């Protein structure tokens, strides 16, 4: 019917404008972040890199950043740690993070458990060591809300916040935190783009259609985690397409 054809044309036009605008946007982010920086992505569990940070990782790739990944646990809450470590490496390969730049911490100090509060000083010490050893000049992690409210996510923010406020970060090292949004915005996918553009103060990464497919492939590497509600998450979450971040 004519209505269906018109809807298809409008949708195609929207996607074309969206892809074109993101190419322009990547140049704008390059001016703000600088090209070819050394970036450390600090996450709490295997799958965080794809479930929450894929737009940032792929956006940084456009800017030719060298991305290091530090995962603070093996995700062993359901005794799947060994499987999840392998899945993380597969996901990083899809996202273009060199496996030589991936570090997974698997010890009792940082258990995958929302009921356990990680020690802020210990997390900060480990973070600082990796920042200094790898010459990092940009750290990316969760904000105070942890996106999902998980205590392990929030612990990473508390640690990097402490390093920043106490002046312990190396000179020239900046921190970006991933903005948490309310549940409604979280699950309206690309429809959140106008609000993201309106409310983002510092950095906004939006994936084009090719990159969205890449992000979904990365998330699909985490086969042990692909329960029905996570499949819905992949379809509807704005974090599979959009990341808005703020500098500390």
Automatic annotation (TrEMBL):
Q: Name one GO molecular function term.
A: N-acetylglucosaminylphosphatidylinositol deacetylase activity
Its chief place of residence is: endoplasmic reticulum
Alphabetized UniProt keyword annotations: Endoplasmic reticulum, GPI-anchor biosynthesis, Hydrolase, Membrane, Transmembrane, Transmembrane helix
A GO BP annotation: GPI anchor biosynthetic process
Keyword Hydrolase in annotation: yes
Q: Which domain of life is it from?
A: Eukaryota
Compartments where found: Endoplasmic reticulum membrane
Q: What Gene3D superfamilies does this protein map onto?
A: LmbE-like (3.40.50.10320)
Q: Which family does it belong to?
A: Belongs to the PIGL family.
- What is the name attached to this protein's record? N-acetylglucosaminyl-phosphatidylinositol de-N-acetylase
UniProt lists the gene as PIGL
């Amino acid at each position: 019917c004519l209505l269906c054809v018109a809807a298809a044309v409008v949708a195609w036009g929207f996607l074309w404008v969206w892809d074109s605008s993101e190419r322009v946007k990547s140049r704008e982010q390059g001016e703000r972040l600088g090209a070819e920086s050394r970036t450390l992505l600090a996450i709490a569990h295997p799958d965080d890199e794809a479930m929450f940070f894929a737009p940032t990782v792929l956006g940084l790739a456009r800017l030719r950043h060298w991305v290091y990944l530090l995962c603070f646990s093996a995700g062993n809450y359901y005794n799947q740690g060994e499987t999840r470590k392998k899945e993380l490496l597969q996901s990083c390969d899809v996202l273009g993070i060199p496996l030589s730049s991936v570090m997974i911490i698997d010890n009792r100090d940082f258990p995958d458990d929302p009921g356990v509060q990680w020690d802020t000083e210990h997390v900060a010490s480990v973070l600082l060591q990796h920042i200094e050893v790898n010459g990092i000049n940009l750290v990316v992690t969760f904000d105070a809300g942890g996106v999902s409210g998980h205590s392990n996510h929030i612990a990473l923010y508390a640690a990097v916040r402490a390093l920043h406020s106490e002046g312990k970060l190396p000179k020239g090292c900046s921190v970006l935190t991933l903005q948490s949004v309310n549940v409604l915005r979280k699950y309206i996918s690309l429809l959140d783009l106008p609000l993201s553009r309106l409310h983002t103060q510092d950095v906004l990464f939006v994936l084009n259609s090719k990159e969205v497919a890449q992000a979904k492939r990365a998330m699909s590497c985490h086969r042990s985690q692909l329960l029905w509600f996570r499949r819905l998450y992949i379809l509807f979450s704005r974090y599979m397409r959009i990341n808005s971040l703020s500098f500390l």
